[in-house]
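seq:
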Amino acid sequence: MSDIIHLLPDSVANQIAAGEVVQRPASAVKELMENALDAGCSKIMLIVKDAGKTLIQVIDNGCGMSETDARMSFERHATSKIKKADDLFAIRTMGFRGEALASIAAIAQVELKTKRIGDEIGVRIDIEGSEIKHQEAVNCAEGTSIAVKNLFYNVPARRNFLKTDSVELRHIIDEFHRVSIPNPNIAFSLHHNNTEVFHLEPGTLKQRLMGLFGNSYNTRLVPVEENTGIVKIKGFVIKPDFAKKTRGEQFFFLNKRFIKNGYLHHAVQSAFEQLLPNDSFASYFLMLDVDPKTIDINIHPTKTEVKFEDEKAIYAFLRSTVKKSLGQFNISPSLDFDQEAHLYNMPLKPIDGIYRQPTIKVDENYNPFKTDKIPGAERELSNKSNWEKLYSRHADNQLAFEIKKEEESQQTINTDWDNDLHESNKKLTYQLHNKYILTHIKTGFMVIDQQGAHERILYERILDGFEKNKSATQQELFPKTIELNTPDFELVKELHSEIQTIGFDISEFGKNTFIIHGVPADTSAFDSVKLLEGLLENYKQNLLELKSDKRENLARSMARSTAIKSGKSLTQEEMHTIIDELFACRMPYSTPGGKPTITTFSSDDLDKRFKK
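struct:
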């Protein structure tokens, strides 16, 4: 019997590795920009076409490569950062595994031009599917230019899984943020389809954030800084007044590398405790600097997950530092000199001009052990009278309760709940803990989750609006502007027609800004800006949790944003309306997310609980 185990060809091994490293165009953008940073450049230009599907080009003015290094850079595990295993625990560069270029070259057509500083001539290499097609000496600028064309051209199945251009562009912009924010001393630019999206000059971290998210951030940022023996913390958090209902602007950087860490996020969120509503999220841009020996970043192909040696200590430092900065912000006085002049109206000198020493008055006849003026016998009679009054009041209440109970016991429930409610049944509707609606049925009673029920009602109502291609709009008396970050702005542009169908009336107004002229009918009680932000946040969360089309996702998101919440007190009429409309739904027994809206308890179940 022949042997069956053999080594994979390099081209196949590279394609398998590419599945881990390059999941979409944004993954290639991340790897190429990080390589440019490691080259010691001061300027990076990112050019993409068709959201990276046709072209991803990164141009830097770094150290460049020799002809031999240029060829070696496309080999698997070829790196200049690691020579021995101990080097893994002293890493301060962005890339170190030597997988990125090999993986990209396995699934795209790559053109590399590079020239070292001081060299007279550079080199150009063309690669397709891990195979070098052409190599020649060229005259080019110092640094490196690498162009990735037709990503996944030889893996059509992977290409078919890519999303729309607007979705893929949002992911590219996310990676652009993650690389450009922790490096404010480097100039960055992003061009998409011959349009300049970002142009960032070198400057401070605050200037970089303003360049990315708008000049309005100048007044929103609260500086955070602390230096301990374990971690150095520096950056900004957004003032609680400007908290949004979206999670987009939450950035942790560890030694200038973007990371994701739910434990540290909880530390920041807890520092904002009692400063934010439950449905709002803290925004932050925080840089953590630790000794590389105390972390392990080699646990995930994208290097966004990190293990800390002393995570609890970093949690405590981070929470207290953010909390201290927020405290300083809250107590800092406003520098209003006109106001300061009128703060103190007390006279600086007594009217008669004579200063007197303060005196203390003491009641010399006060005796703390002196008994009350009421004699013992009188006090006893007084106490007895009070107890008799209390007992009498309780007896009256008990009698009223028994009468009411007797009246209720005489009422007969002869049918289960249906859409044609009898007036006697309508009286038998109660609200429990401002969360559940209780109502009698023939065999016992029914409990309805008021929030879940309302979500189901709104969800089907919005889907019906999509079918009719029209929903009612309530025009705003004073239109409002909403400024979004670039990914959310692109998302709204992608969903513009569907959002209009729901009932929003919005239009573009400058860079990353929309004007809200109108909102869906019956939502005028909501703040229009927060309503749209909440819709976007729920939509993005649904993208992560389920595979659904845009309309179904928007219907679920809008229903969740506008449904009545647990804790809201309802009138009898409101409870009856919810019950009627719920049972008029096509699927009244579950929320759009699949959770139950109704549960019933039979009289037999209750009887069993009271039997010995």
